[in-house]
Amino acid sequence: MKTFKSKVLFLTGAAHGFGHVIALEAAKRGMKLVLVDIDEPALHQTQQEVERLGAENLAIPADVTKESSVNEAIDQAMAAFKRIDLLINDAGIALPGRIWELPTRDWEWILHVNTMSQVYTMKRIIPIMMKQKTHGAILNVASIAGLLDTPGMPSYHASKFASVGLSEATAYDLQRAGADIEMHVMCPGFVQTDLYHTEEHRPKQYSDPEDPYYHSEAFLKGQQFAKAVITNGMPIDTIAATVFKALEDNEFYILTHPEYNPLISDRVHRIVNHGAPDVHVMDGLM
Ligand SMILES: NC(=O)c1ccc[n+]([C@@H]2O[C@H](COP(=O)([O-])OP(=O)(O)OC[C@H]3O[C@@H](n4cnc5c(N)ncnc54)[C@H](O)[C@@H]3O)[C@@H](O)[C@H]2O)c1
After folding, report:
1. Which value, to the nearest 10 degrees, does the dihedral of the CA atoms of residues 4, 18, 99, 273 take?
2. pLDDT digits (tens, 9 = 90+) for 228-276
3. Which residue, 70, 104, 141, 206, has fewest beta-carbon neighbours within 10 Å?
């Protein structure tokens, strides 16, 4: 996507972190914005900031784990702007916890926010883009955790590997269908955002405060781990520029931390050489 002025962006996760900085950059580039997030007060703050930049916008509080909420948000976007040119699926959460500890409801929660929400939006918005017969673009925010795995957060890896696979496979289908829609998948390493505040975005249907897991040492350690890795991550200031440059250059994989590239090669090498995951390699890194 070479030009952005007057084009319509549908953005999930717009209230905090990556979504917030992407919204501001899109506003500066003259885009019309549909801002979606579960955190209503923070969403309205983002809305006020894009308004100060002069962007036409619609802020829609919605829980992307629900297909009906996603569909309603898309209906509202189409009623307001009549088109969607760029879809950025950014909403996400992180839930540390080993498979024998993390409650099943948390698995369902993370797979719905990080993966199924991308299915819900693409399922509806791809046909809209195809019908428009103008150039469209879709960017799924996955993670380096969708290309590499580490100990301690299998649910996050499962959700992000799924997002990468979903994006790659959809890219083939769009090409086969002759659709004028470019696909992108973003796979960042740790970046300083609000991601360690995931618990504040837990929808009611995934809540059970009585479950002893949420009072356990395993849970508290997971929270501390998430806070430590995110607050020690890369500053967020270059993220929006990276996203828009990748869109302009039609780059499929958007990577932010080149220091992980040897580990990606190492994983592929292990796969084709009958190797196996080795925790000692990761111990040196985490
Ligand atoms: N920060 C990192 O180190 C990092 C690294 C790789 C990938 N990512 C990915 O980047 C994306 C953005 O995360 P971030 O780091 O900016 O975190 P963040 O917490 O700052 O932003 C995530 C946003 O998603 C929203 N959200 C959460 N659940 C939702 C729901 N059910 N419905 C609607 N909105 C919901 C939150 O309210 C928040 O505004 C995520 O997909 C995350 O997995 C982050």
Report:
1. 60
2. 999 999 999 999 999 999 999 999 999 999 999 999 999 999 999 999 9
3. 104
Which tens digits make up the pLDDT trace of 149-184? 999 999 999 999 999 999 999 999 999 999 999 999
Please give the distance, rounded to the nearest whole angstrom, from the Cα atom of residue 159 to the centre of ligand 1: 13
> What's the CATH superfamily of 8-259?
NAD(P)-binding Rossmann-like Domain (3.40.50.720)
Q: What residue type is 63 in one-letter code?
A: D
For residue 142, the Cα-to-chain-centroid distance in whole angstroms is: 5
User: Relative to the CA of 39, which ligand 1 atom is closest?
Assistant: 37
Joined together, the tokens standing for residue 240 give: 């929006």
CA distance 124 to 283: 42
Nearest atom (ligand 1) to Cα of 19: 16
- Where in the chain are the domains? 8-259
Ligand 1 is surrounded, with C-beta below 6 A, by 12-13, 15-19, 37-39, 63-65, 90-93, 113-114, 141, 143, 188, 190-191, 193-195, 197, 201, 203, 230, 233
